[in-house]
Each structure stands twice: as C-alpha cells, then as structure tokens.
TrEMBL record:
Cell division recorded as keyword: no
Name of the protein described by the UniProt record: Golgi apparatus membrane protein TVP23
Keyword set, alphabetical order: Golgi apparatus, Membrane, Transmembrane, Transmembrane helix
InterPro entries: TVP23-like
Family of this protein: Belongs to the TVP23 family.
Coarse class of the protein's main subcellular location: Golgi
One Pfam family recorded for the sequence: DUF846
Any one GO biological process: vesicle-mediated transport
Keyword Transcription: no
UniProt-listed PANTHER family: GOLGI APPARATUS MEMBRANE PROTEIN TVP23 (PTHR13019:SF7)
GO cellular component: Golgi membrane
Function (record text): Golgi membrane protein involved in vesicular trafficking.
C-alpha cells in the first residue's frame, strides 16, 4: 500500500471484491452470451443458475461479512415460523470498514437485480417463457440478498440507536446519582 495515497483510495479487500463481482458478472455474461453459442436450454439453465447460486452463497457468507460487516440467515423456529437472524460487527469495527468496499458491495447488489429485471423484460418481449424461468430464479436469489442485507443493516442501525440511548440514560442517571450523593 502506498503511504502517500489518502486512506480509502484503494479497496481494502480486493480479492473479496473481485469474487463479489465475478459470479454476478459470470452469471449475467453466460446468460447473455449463451444464446450466441449454445442451443441447449438445459445447459444454459443449469450453468446460469449455478453461477447465480454461487454468487448468492459468496455474497451471503463471505463478501457480506468482509465488505460491510453484516451477516443474515433465516431459521424456522419450533412453532414453524420463519425467523430472521442478523449479525453485525461492533460499531467501532463497522466505522473502520473501507468505504469503497461498501460502495462496491451495495451498488453491485442493486445493479445486478436491475440487470436481471431488464433481461426478464427482454425475455417477455421475445415471448421466451423458458428464459423467464432462468431470470426468475436469478432475480429471486439476488433480491433475497438485497432484502437480507437491507434488514440486517437496519437492525445494526437500530442496535446502535439502542446502545446510544442506553449509554445516554446511564450517564444522565449516574450524573443525577452523583449530584445527590454530594448533597
């Protein structure tokens, strides 16, 4: 790292950033280019969905933790209800995360979903219902990560606000308590 550059000029985790984008780009590129080279729908479906599933897994379990300090998952409790679970780094660690890494994470997440929507519209306009199935699966995986990480980020912000409120209440309480103990 060049010490003359201002902090935040480079990606802190370039390999993670690469793989975060690689599977997204791979799934989109394969889907788009496969029509030129492959006549077999099953191969196109399997490879595109496999790349999208790898992207889903990498984002959910690796790049989300490293680039934005967030992790989410969904469990079924004993009552059969779906329960969202969230983890985030502590506030000091979150504040130290690289802004470029975070920017790449969020923008690539949203732009990928937009790209799948556009490809879905093209499939509809060309009356290719089978290709809409591929787009639907890929879009579902993409949106699942968007929803999961957005809820996780909101939960982390809520925890920060609760921590700040609790800290403020404790300080006010200790100030009042020390004022009365002097008297």
């Amino acid at each position: 790292m060049d010490l003359n550059q201002p902090p935040g000029e480079n990606y802190a985790n370039p390999k993670t950033c690469l793989f975060h984008v690689l599977f997204k780009a791979g799934a989109l590129a394969f889907y788009i280019l496969s029509a030129l080279f492959i006549d077999n729908f099953v191969i196109i479906f399997v490879v595109t969905v496999l790349l999208a599933a790898l992207d889903f897994w990498v984002v959910k379990n690796v790049s989300g933790r490293i680039l934005v300090g967030l992790r989410w998952w969904n469990e079924i409790n004993d009552l059969g209800e779906s329960v969202w679970k969230f983890e985030s780094l502590d506030q000091e660690s979150l504040a130290r995360l690289n802004k470029k890494d975070s920017w790449l994470f969020w923008w690539s997440l949203y732009l990928t979903a937009i790209a799948w929507v556009v490809l879905g519209i093209f499939s509809l306009l060309r009356f290719q219902a089978d290709y809409c199935l591929i787009v639907g699966v890929c879009l579902t995986l993409s949106i699942a990560n968007i929803v999961g990480f957005t809820k996780c980020r909101k939960d982390a912000k809520k925890q920060l606000q609760q921590f700040a409120s609790q800290t403020l209440a404790n300080r006010v309480s200790s100030t009042i308590q020390s004022a009365f103990s002097v008297v």
